[in-house]
Design brief:
- The chain is of the alpha/beta class.
- The chain folds into two domains: about 230 residues, Aspartate Aminotransferase, domain 2, CATH 3.40.640.10; about 120 residues, Alpha-Beta Complex (Aspartate Aminotransferase, domain 1), CATH 3.90.1150.
- It contains eleven helices and 14 strands.
- The strands form four sheets. A seven-stranded mixed sheet has the order 1-9-8-5-4-2-3, sandwiched between helices. Strands 7-6-12 form a three-stranded antiparallel sheet, with no helix packed on it.
- α5 links the parallel β4 and β5.
- The chain is globular.
- It starts with 10 loop residues before the first helix and ends in an 8-residue tail after the last helix.
- The structure holds pyridoxal-5'-phosphate.
- The site of pyridoxal-5'-phosphate (PLP) has 15 residues, from α3 and α4.
Length: about 375
């Protein structure tokens, strides 16, 4: 078998494609010396809002700060509870903690790895103020059900879209269903900056106005501070890079979807569980996550042959040290706990070639069909 090294993510191929445009865009930022916010960031905000057919986009320093500012804008504070899926990147819950509020975890649905709407009502108390569905791995959460529960109980909804740029639920882009949507532009995300970045998308004028001030020391006019805010501004360079890359997002997403289809084809007969793609969504495959028994051995076999993999995420949030104090215990979220032991993220990026996918499949096949300890023949 040909030994191709396949990384989890390859940002170099993409850079090669857009190098000249990026250099021009960065050069303009330097010529304008607009290093913090400024024209490139404003132009990106307008383009990203338009992309979502949303009224506002407020760019921030990261996805985590976008989540934090959005929650503050929604009035979340000490004594409040916010419902968060138990299997997500920790930042979703951290943003709640930054507000002095308490994250309350809910188990995932076995089919899409997103929050299980049927399990939300049991987590609601008189202190609950909001729900944060996460469109995990690039597949939208069941928004109709989440919104119906939120409406019934008078709760706000903030979408965590950090892994779901350009994803659609019933034909509409994620980030526009709740009070606001928070995006991350961490370099490895589907729309990645060349450093940290994030944004809030919203149709709510008050949320946008608050977020604009909060990211900028509570200020809308120089040295006039209406409240104690943060330094959560986006850099000019990141706005410039994102402005260039947004134009390619659709194409790159289609490439990811084609890579996912190819994986499905070549992995179809293997003893593993492929990710389910719901038919009413546009899944954008931030990650292609399969489930395997004996993950440790399979992962090591891939690694040995130059195939990278990831585990997103090895420890559900209720079992991490950071949230020990919340008093949850093992067994509390059986669906997420079972998944955590079996999930394996295969290499995924727009430029992933058929050959690379073939190589991943070959080594995976060899590891899965060869019984433990059998000699190589
Ligand atoms: C990446 C990510 C974040 C945080 O974004 P940063 O830009 O890294 O701060 C939040 N939520 C989820 C689901 C993420 O994947």
């Amino acid at each position: 078998m040909a030994n191709i090294r396949v990384p989890m993510v390859d940002l170099k191929a993409q850079y090669a494609q857009i190098r000249d445009e990026i250099h021009d865009a960065l050069d303009r930022v330097m010529a304008d010396t607009a290093f913090v916010l400024g024209k490139a960031v404003e132009e990106f905000e307008q383009a990203f809002a338009a992309h979502h057919q949303a009224k506002h986009c407020v760019a921030t320093s990261s996805g985590t700060s976008a989540l934090h500012v959005a929650l503050l804008a929604m009035g979340i504070g000490p004594g409040d509870e916010v419902i968060v899926p138990v299997n997500t990147f920790i930042a979703t819950a951290e943003a709640v903690s930054y507000c002095g509020a308490k994250p309350v975890f809910v188990d995932m649905h076995d089919e899409d790895f997103c929050i299980d709407p049927a399990k939300i009502p049991a987590a609601i108390t008189p202190k609950t103020k909001a729900i944060i569905p996460v469109h995990l791995y690039g597949q939208p959460a069941e928004m109709d059900e989440v919104l119906a529960i939120a409406a019934e109980h008078g709760l706000m909804v903030l979408e965590d879209c950090a892994q779901a740029h350009d994803a659609e639920y019933k034909g509409r882009k994620v980030g526009t269903f709740g009070r606001a949507g928070a995006f991350s532009f961490y370099p490895g995300k589907n729309l990645g900056a060349y450093g940290e970045g994030g944004a809030i998308v919203t149709n709510d004028d008050d949320i946008a106005a608050f977020a604009r001030k909060a990211r900028h020391h509570g200020s809308s006019k120089r040295y006039h501070h209406d409240f104690v805010g943060y330094n959560y501004r986006m850099h000019g360079f990141q706005g410039a890079v994102l402005g260039v890359k947004l134009k390619y997002l659709r194409e790159w997403t289609d490439q990811r979807r084609r890579a996912a289809a190819k994986y499905r084809e070549v992995l179809a007969d293997l003893p593993l569980v492929l990710p389910k793609e719901k038919d009413h969504v546009r899944h954008v495959y931030h990650l292609f996550v399969v489930r395997v028994k004996d993950r440790q051995r399979i992962g090591e076999a891939l690694w040995e042959h130059g195939i990278d993999y990831g585990i997103h995420y090895p420890i559900p949030l209720h079992l991490t040290g950071a949230y020990e104090d919340l008093g949850y215990s093992e067994g509390g979220f059986p669906v997420a706990e079972a998944a955590a032991d079996e999930i394996l993220s295969l290499p995924m990026y727009p430029e992933l070639s058929k050959e690379a996918i073939g190589s991943v499949a070959s080594w995976l096949r060899e590891a899965l069909v060869r019984p433990t300890g059998a000699a190589e023949g």
